[in-house]
Design brief:
- The structure holds 3 protein chains of 3 kinds.
- Chain A has 12 helices and 2 strands.
- Chain A is mainly alpha-helical.
- A two-stranded antiparallel sheet of chain A has the order 1-2.
- Chain A is globular and about 60 Å long.
- The model of chain A has no long low-confidence stretch (mean pLDDT 88).
- In chain C, a hairpin with a 2-residue loop joins strand 1 and strand 2.
- The two termini of chain C are 33 Å apart.
- In chain C, 52% of the residues are buried.
- Chain C is mostly helical.
- A two-stranded antiparallel ribbon of chain C has the order 1-2.
- Classes of the chains: A mainly alpha, B alpha/beta, C mainly alpha.
- At the A-C interface, helix 3, helix 4, helix 10 and helix 12 of A face helix 5, helix 11 and helix 13 of C.
């Protein structure tokens, strides 16, 4: 029983990570209809930024975390201004290939700059083990989960209560109407990107104490996040979050009870299964953030 | 037996009923227009009967055969030609190649024969080119036969799409707003083309907003409003029908 | 006089091993090795272009078919001692049948989902190849893959492998040409450029997408078989997703949808970095940037640039494209 609980907690940790990354992807698709294949690299860059701030500069954990999210956000904004703006009006083929190309470039640059050896960033909480009713887990794990919940609540507040957030929600439902009504479409697109990047960078700060940072980490993450977005229904953020947790838990249980080696395949098995049975995703064609 | 028939055709989108139990029937050789205010369901109906949208209820018959839910390429193969509201051509192909593309499936050759360019295939190709040039001639595009379709003007592309739909000599031709967004000269040309089609014995159903065109060439007019058929009859009668007037002006 | 140019070009290509031996005797092994890889990559790129360039399906599953063909033939040769003449068709068939099986569910998906689905399949294929150690030897790789023997013909020397590669790219090129011209080509292109209109023209989009996908997959399997027999060793890393990126670079650099373009792209991708002695990571950074710039600015690649140059000053037309 304790074993199962441990696996579930691991699954929720994974799910939190996937959900934060998938939210960024879903936001980008929902608001600007863009498929960003380099999204996982935002996480990777955030991870390295965090490592630099925490291990190299020696900043306290929360500060380093915020710095990492901020640095990633800045990168996201720059990326939007340069690459994304030029491909927004193009076909999805072009968008996919362009962002895929970005992903390859960033990954290899990371290898050149940081080397292939994973960077470890243990924090106090990742090494401190809690024992609750026979279940052993690092304090970092509940932190990740709590932080994720806080982030999603914050996002919901942002989208419902702030002008920018409401504009994002409106754009996700009807872009043309927004342009007519006077919403600054360019600004909203930029903000969406910055937000998505910050989410990925923040996720890296939360999770890399548990999982390490290496140049390739983005690739698999992008794909699993995509799986969540697809299963949740393209463009429906809450669906993506739910699907991400589903995938995280499924992966953890599969790793524990079926086979550790094949755990990475679970996300895709779930994705393909859902796509075949319900091509519009688990939650139907609901659009909107 | 009517050439084409829709019975109780219904299509719903996210709570809105775009097409509401519509009955429609065309005898061979008729020229019928489908009109109605914006959003009345005309193009949706077109898409349902040509297989692009699955209907939620009702049945569609072509030459007595139930074609409800049949895939669009098979309906086309049975002898139904259509144009699209947003003018559709193959931009990278030449005008001539556009037309040839519309005829090639109507030859019973397998993929293998095509791969080895069997002699029978070559002869067919010759006949196809002749027919294509004749059609291009009739819409005044013969001089642009080798120009990429993407380089033609909007009106020229409309004419090309029209000619392409006629390539396989379909019995039933569905035209989606043939007179939209073209200049008056072109509109007259379109009217002449449609009349010529009709004279050749083809059955034509057109969706159109331009009332002059509709009143001028149609034998019969069907009016849709909010997905429902509200009137049907000769143009003059429909024009005077109070329900129709209300649908267009009464809000 | 195209036939003469073809014949001359073909003769030169065949004579390459001797030309290299005469011009750069010390480098012969290295140069031939690069050329063999270029030929195989060229063939693989053509098979991929069939799917991406001509029927417009952005499949990311190609490495899986390459790998399935390679592993099928390699295992049949090393475990069941099948001769090359039997292992090659087996590899082609295995890849083609897998493409058929995968294509049926995949083509029910649209656009992004199709790309993701095929990517997912490619990833799962690599994961299986890496982890099903009892069957594929996993990271330990399949070793000792025998050199090809077709009757009295034994392909053991580098020039022989070069001619094998040349034959492969030649055959695949011929097939590619036949499939992408005339009526079949028009059907593919119609589906690619306007699927709705293609349906209105009685063209069955699914049939043609599947045709390109399965034939492309089968060809990839064949190239995989040749690759395995040349290198002699086969590891799961050959199925990596990065192969798709490499292929995309070749296609877009040279000219997607064009035989000459794709071949040029393959040559540029494979031979050029060798000539420039680029380190692998820097090479990928440069190619990533190149792909980015090309897909945005010049999606027709080098072929497009050449075509625009050669069809230069004309009378200005009445309306632009």
């Amino acid at each position: 029983m304790g074993d199962l609980v441990e696996q579930l907690v691991h699954g929720l940790t994974l799910g939190s990570l996937y959900a934060m990354v998938a939210t960024g992807l879903a936001l980008m698709f929902g608001v600007v209809r863009l498929v960003n294949f380099a999204h996982g690299e935002f996480y990777m860059l955030g991870g390295y930024a965090f490592w630099y701030a925490y291990r190299v500069l020696g900043l306290p954990y929360p500060v380093a975390g915020v710095a990492a999210a901020a640095a990633t956000a800045v990168f996201g904004l720059a990326y939007e201004r340069t690459v994304i703006r030029t491909i927004l009006a193009r076909t999805w083929h072009v968008q996919l290939i362009a962002t895929l190309a970005t992903s390859i470039t960033l990954t290899n640059l990371a290898i050149i700059v940081f080397g292939t050896q994973p960077k470890e960033v243990p924090t106090v909480l990742s090494s401190a083990i809690a024992e609750i009713g026979g279940v052993r887990l690092a304090w970092q794990r509940p932190l990740v989960l709590v932080a994720a919940v806080v982030v999603f609540a914050g996002l919901e507040w942002f989208v419902a209560r702030t002008k920018l957030g409401r504009a994002m929600r409106a754009m996700s439902q009807n872009r043309e109407a927004c342009a007519v009504v006077g919403v600054d479409v360019q600004r909203v697109a930029l903000a969406t990107f910055g937000l998505s990047a910050a989410l990925a960078g923040g996720a890296a700060a939360l999770v890399s104490p548990l999982f390490n940072i290496f140049p390739d980490v983005g690739a698999l993450l992008t794909l699993k996040a995509f799986a969540a977005v697809i299963v949740g229904g393209f463009g429906y953020v809450k669906g993506a979050i739910a699907a991400a947790f589903l995938i995280g838990v499924a992966e953890s249980l599969a790793a524990g009870y079926l086979s550790y080696a094949y755990k990475d395949a679970i996300a895709f098995v779930v994705m393909v299964a859902v796509l075949l049975v319900r091509p519009q995703g688990l939650f139907g064609r609901r659009i909107g953030i | 037996m009517a050439l084409f028939e829709a019975r109780g055709l219904t299509k719903r989108f996210l709570g809105v009923t775009a097409v509401d139990a519509v009955d429609l029937s065309l005898e061979a050789g008729e020229l019928v227009s489908l009109i109605g205010p914006n959003g009345s369901g005309k193009t949706t109906l077109f898409n349902c009967v040509t297989g692009y949208l699955p209907s939620d209820a009702g049945r569609v018959f072509f030459r007595g055969r139930d074609v409800t839910g049949v895939a669009p390429h098979r309906i086309a193969r049975l002898g139904v030609g259509r144009t699209f509201q947003l003018v559709s051509v193959f931009p990278r192909l030449s005008a001539l190649e556009n037309l040839l593309t519309f005829l090639q499936q109507h030859q019973e050759e397998g993929v293998l024969a095509r791969l080895v360019r069997a002699p029978r295939v070559r002869r067919f190709e010759g006949v196809a080119v002749e027919r294509a040039m004749m059609l291009l001639e009739s819409v005044g595009l013969a001089s642009r036969a080798s120009a990429p379709a993407g380089s033609l003007s909007y009106g020229q592309r409309k004419l090309l799409a029209f000619a392409a739909a006629l390539m396989p000599d379909p019995e039933l031709v569905l035209l989606d707003e043939p007179a939209a967004a073209v200049n008056p000269t072109m509109i007259n040309q379109m009217k002449d083309q449609i009349r010529a089609l009709h004279r050749r014995g083809k059955t034509v159903l057109l969706v159109e907003h331009n009332m002059d065109v509709v009143m001028d060439i149609s034998q019969r007019v069907i009016v849709l409003d909010h997905g429902q058929k509200i009137a049907e009859g000769p143009p003059a009668a429909v024009r005077r029908d109070p329900k129709v007037i209300e649908a267009y002006f009464g809000r | 006089m195209r036939a003469l140019r073809f014949g001359l070009g073909g003769a030169v290509l065949v004579a390459v091993p001797w030309i290299v031996a005469a011009v750069a005797p010390g480098q012969q092994r290295y140069i031939l090795h690069v050329l063999i890889f270029t030929a195989l990559y060229g063939a693989l790129a053509l098979s991929y272009d069939l799917v991406v360039g001509h029927v417009g399906s952005l499949s990311l599953a190609h490495p899986a078919f390459f790998g399935i063909g390679a592993y099928t033939a390699a295992l049949l040769a090393t475990e069941a001692h099948w001769p090359f003449a039997a292992a090659l068709p087996a590899g082609i068939a295995a890849a083609g049948l897998t493409a058929l099986a995968v294509g049926v569910p995949m083509f029910r998906l649209t656009e992004h989902s199709f790309a993701m689905g095929t990517l997912g399949f490619a990833l799962v294929a690599q994961i299986v190849a890496t982890n099903w150690v009892e069957f594929t030897r996993g990271p330990l790789c399949v070793t000792g893959i025998p050199k090809p023997e077709i009757g009295p013909l034994r392909i053991t020397t580098l020039p022989a492998f070069y001619w094998m590669g040349l034959t492969a790219v030649g055959l695949i090129g011929l097939l590619y040409h036949g499939l992408t011209t005339a009526r079949l080509g028009r059907a593919f292109h119609a589906v690619r450029d306007n699927e709705m209109l293609a349906s209105a023209a009685s063209i069955h989009p699914l049939k043609y997408r599947m045709l390109a996908f399965v034939i492309g997959g089968a060809m990839a399997g064949g190239v995989g078989t040749l690759f395995a027999s040349y290198v002699g060793v086969l590891c799961p890393t050959e199925l990596a997703v990065s192969l798709t990126v490499n292929l995309l670079v070749m296609l877009f650099l040279g000219g997607v949808g064009s035989l000459r373009g794709v071949v040029v792209g393959a040559v540029a991708f494979t031979a050029l970095p060798e000539i420039l002695r680029m380190a692998p990571t820097w090479r990928m950074v440069i190619y990533g940037l190149l792909l980015l710039v090309i897909v945005i600015r010049a999606p027709d690649g080098l072929e497009g640039v050449i075509r625009r140059r050669s069809s230069a000053p004309r009378r200005p037309s009445a309306s632009g494209a």
